[in-house]
Amino acid sequence: SGLLFAQGRLSALVKPTTNVSSVTFIIITLQMILVQVNPGETFTIRTEDGQVRCITGPAHVPMVSPNGTMPPIYVPPGYMSQVVEENGVRKVMVLPQTTEFHPSMPPPPPLHVPQYLPPHPAMLHQHHMYPREMPPHFMHQLPPPQMYSEQGECLPACPPQPALLIQDVQCARNLSPVVSQCSIAMTDSGYPVLLSLSSSLMTFSSHRGLETTFTVEDLRPATAYYIKVCASCGSVKGPSSEVADFTTMCAPPEAPAPPRVILHSKSTLVLQWKAPNDNGSKITGYLLEFDEGKQSAFKEVYFGHAKQYKIVKLTPSTNYAFRIAAKNDIGMSEVMTCCTAGSAPQPPAPPRLSASGVSWLTLEWNIPGGLTAGDTLTYTLEMEEEGTGYGFKPKYNGEELSCTLKGLRRSTSYRFRVLAANAEGRSQPSVPVEFSTTPDKPGAPGRPALRGRVQPRCLHTVWDAPKDDGGSPVTQYVLEMDNGWEVVYSGPLREHVCDSLKPGTWYNLRVYCQSAGGQSQASESLTVQTAPVPPGPCQALQLAGKARTKRKELPFNPAVALLAWDGGAPVSQYIVEMSDSTQGPHRTFYQGLETDCSACQLVPGHKYCFWVKAANQAGWGPLSEMYEFSTAPGPPEPCGPPQLAVKTPTCVLASWEIPACNGAEVFEFRMEWGAAEGTLTLTYCGPAPGYEARNLLPATAYYCRVQAVNSVGAGPFGDVAMVTTPPSVPAAVRSVAVVGEDALAESLAGPASCLALRWEEPCSHGAEIIGYNIDFGEQVPISVGKTNHYILENLQPDTTYRVRVQAINGIGVGPFSASLKARTRPLPPEPPTLECAAAGPQSLKLKWGDGPSRGHPSSFVNHPGIDCPRLVCIYSGPCHTFKVQRLSEATVYQFSIQAHNEAGVGPLSPLYSFSTSRSPPPQLKAPRVDQLESNHYEVTWEALQSMRGDPIVYTLQLQRGRELEQLYRGPASSYKWHGVVPVCDWRLRVCAGRRCPDGVELWGPYSPSIALPGPEPPAASESVAGSRATSRDGVAPRKDRAITDEQFALLLLLGFAIVAILFAVLIQYFVIK
Q1: What is the block-wise mean pLDDT of the chain (1073 residues), using blocks of 10 residues?
Q2: CB-based contacts of 972: which residues, under 8 Å, 6+ apart?
Q3: Strand boundaries in 466-595, DSSP class E
Q4: N or C: which end of the chain has fewer CB within 10 A?
Q5: CA dist 93 to 105, 145, 391, Å?
Q6: Which residues pair with 791 in a beta bridge?
Q7: Is the separation of the CB atoms in 543 and 555 below 8 Å?
């Protein structure tokens, strides 16, 4: 339908790329002729309406023939046209006549061909002939023509619109379609290609270059893609082609993941696997193979649709290898080895000590023997602390062959053993071994102190030993000075004289000690100044603490930057100056003697300069070095009130929003929680914006507030939120106890068959308590009303019961209280047999029972009576004997006894009659002996009254050494003795006797003896007469009387008492004190 003009030389057509795993096709029918325009060449086409369109190479110009004939093509002189058919596509090439053709090319057609009738224009754009039943992937839109002048020059125009042709669609994911596109004869040109999974053409892959073929890789099988292309030349871009779509072919499914064992035993294995990607085609089955445990060729064991299979009849303790593939294609999974059930491992060897410390020990151990390949063991390390008595406790459980135990005590021995375990069980523990931790480093010594006055060039320093030596004695003390903390002394002494110091200089001294456990912490430093020094410039300021952004304060500490020389006088004041810049004016913000100050009202994020100078009596010193400081971000803003959500009566979930951080990211939140608004305590500290409060009390109001923290500091607390937990079941009953009958308003029906219980009312948790349940071993507990006591009746005597009580409210039943062991009383005891063990004139000793009762303390009661039925209690207690005092002699008394224990009081026994005996006369005083004449004596003694009508008789005895002789027996109270020659060792004594009506005589004890006076000399008669005369005149004669035996014994006892008291005082003073 038009003329075709060619300029330049045409080259051969490039063949499309093919490979083994793809099929290359071009969706062009035999009715279409494709004209190739090479780079640098221009084709001019004149259509039937007279328009001229210029096509610049590289390009492919499709021409459609409705009847399949070759259209006429006119070429310039010196050129020839040739038709080449490749892969079912006919292409026309215009070549110079001198061009050599490939032998495979067909001979050129004749130059004169019949006239070609142009097709209808609509046929150029509505071609729908699809060979091999494939969808079209090309565009039949012609590019815009270029206009030429009469001289053949090309006028400026936009790049042509290319036609997109899909030459090849691959069927695998790693292969991709090849896009063939048009060519333009321009420099700095290209073809941007856009590819997307949707028609909206979101670009995820692009291509820009002069090649006319582009391979898109990494596509997914069985997936529809959309593609378009445009031509560009420099910064000018032509219109895009119409969107073409294509669908990749289906591929075999991906290899399944290795199967996993979900259940195994000694002879069975249950395997399970997941379905892989089917790559566009549904999976129809799975093939499972295994090697029969022989590590040989695999054998099919299952084929089907299920994704789980159970293999039976396997050999115990054998390794099996399995692999699985999908049906669509051969795709083996990775080999997974598993083992059937076996036996527990053998005991491992004892652990070894790898390293030790003050509070830690590192142990390691070996793998036990007898293991098969693939066995996974878990080890348990147990520890026993010496002296605790708790035995071995597990401290580590894992698969590692070493473990570090921390938190141990220093210089302490521990015993260790290790156990191994697999899926079949645990082994026996290894042989225990014992290891010890090392001693700890000692504590810090006391702060150094000065001894004596401070000298200009020396300091005498002393310090105290540490309170804790760390388990080993201190061997060395080290004294350091703050001149880079230089060591000035090292030795065992606790004092040192520091010399060669600078006058008027402040020094910081500290000391630390060393022992076998290591080096201690340094003590508190001692800051001391030597003698005054001349003044000098101050050192630069130092920041004493963190900047407080909220107050806009900056604390400084000039004390650490004192004068180097103060002139021998103390500093009177300091001046601290500040400026906004190094060249700016200085202004004073502090003046005084204090050694610290704060710069207030500072602007955050701004730089400030500070100087300090000191003054004394001589004046002001120079300014110190400049100190620069930039303010930092501030703490975060306060948090809002937290949102409290009640989950359970004892659990509340608190959450809050993150506040403004003020320049530094918030990394921590602190939540305070409490039952009263004024007594909140820190409950949570962490990065999460929420916290779950547990173990709360039901029906209780709780208050909560939150504080945010960033790198600068903690912000203020936010508003307080309040939540009330809902009511719940009551708490457990406390203080359940058995009470006696006296503690109850009502009496017990039978103490041996009843138990009186009393308890305290528990917390109701917001709902009023309506009753209680009492469980004491019966099948159904007893329900009682709202009371705090109850009497259990109809119980077995002397029986133990376990009693529990639980409270009930409107919400439900609370937990039972702790079990109370209560035992009912036994039955009251029978009275024992009463006997009289000994009878006296005024007392009776009674005896009953054979010993204490069988484990139950008993009390006995005696009741006497004197010819009357009235009984009076004279004793009550646990003893088995009692002596009745203050009775009348020779009198008959009646007694009755009864026993009682915790069960109650037993019955009274029959009456027992016992009589007291008669009492003998009392002891007489020593008799009196008077010498009437020579060998004539008169002995007298005191007379006693008759006892209850019974007469009294007396007996006088003479003691001659060891011989006794009765001189008199009768009722008289005196006796005269004649014709006796006395000896110096003769003594006399007398006793009284009671003569009873029945003729029995009761004799009392003898009186003290008295010596018989010796014979007087002849001249003594006158003295006797004189003495008598003196006695007549009223003066008593003086006689030398010897001490008696009783007086001698009393003196001896008194002497022993005085010696004992003296020894006690000496022991107290010299020994005890």
Answers
A1: 29 28 31 68 71 76 64 65 63 57 40 36 34 33 38 42 52 38 44 71 53 76 82 78 83 83 82 85 86 81 89 81 80 50 76 90 88 78 86 91 90 91 83 90 91 85 90 90 88 91 84 89 88 70 66 50 59 85 84 82 74 78 82 81 90 90 84 88 91 89 92 88 90 86 66 83 88 84 87 83 90 89 82 88 86 45 51 86 88 87 78 88 90 85 88 90 88 86 82 88 90 61 40 40 77 93 89 76
A2: 954
A3: 474-481, 486-491, 495-498, 506-515, 518-519, 526-529, 554-556, 573-579, 587-592
A4: C
A5: 11, 20, 99
A6: 756
A7: yes
Phi, psi of 526 (to 5 degrees): -105, 120
Residues 6+ apart with CB under 8 A from 1051: 1043
Q: How far is CA 181 from CA 139, 161, 214, 229, in A?
A: 10, 10, 9, 8
Q: What angle do CA 764, 765, 771 make, to 5 degrees?
A: 30
How many CB atoms within 10 Å of residue 512?
A: 20
Q: Is the peptide bond before 58 cis (omega within 30 degrees of 0)?
A: yes
Give this prediction's pTM. 0.30
pLDDT of residue 1030: 36
**Contact partners, residue 484, CB within 8 Å, separation at least 6:** none
User: CB–CB of 801/795 below 8 Å?
Assistant: yes
> 379 and 396 in contact (C-beta within 8 Å)?
yes
For β-strands 904-905 and 627-630, DSSP reports them as unpaired
DSSP string, 142-193: PPPPPPB-TT-PBPP-PPPPPPPEEEEEESSTT--PEEE------SSEE--E
Residue 221 token pair: 């099988």
Instruction: Find out whether 704 and 729 touch, Cβ atoms under 8 Å.
Output: no
Q: Which of 527, 528, 523 is nearest to 464 (CA)?
A: 523
Q: Which class for 920: exposed (0-12), middle (13-18), buried (19 or more C-beta within 10 A)?
A: middle
Tokens of 213: 């073929």
